[in-house]
Write a structure and sequence with these properties.
By secondary structure, this protein is an alpha+beta fold. Helices cover about 40% and strands about 20% of the residues. The protein starts with a helix and ends with a helix.
Amino acid sequence: MPAIEIEYRRFHRDGLEVLGVDQQEDRARVAGFVKPFGLSFPLAIDQGALAQTYGVIAIPTSVFIDRSGIVRAVHIGAMDPAQMEADLKKIM
């Protein structure tokens, strides 16, 4: 999550939007996770519908969607900075 925050701050002015999605935990638990990392991108709590829509079968899963709403990359598991940068290039 800290690496995602770095890229969000770096590219947000260029149009990058990030939505963190937590699965089925309550807001207090999510807030407790967000605070130490100083995350500034929005987070939502999914009760299962969003994961189902995007075919999420493992956590973490990152879905890269371009400005036209087209999924350009899906990455399952933790990402290293090079992988994140490669996937960001597909949507920016």
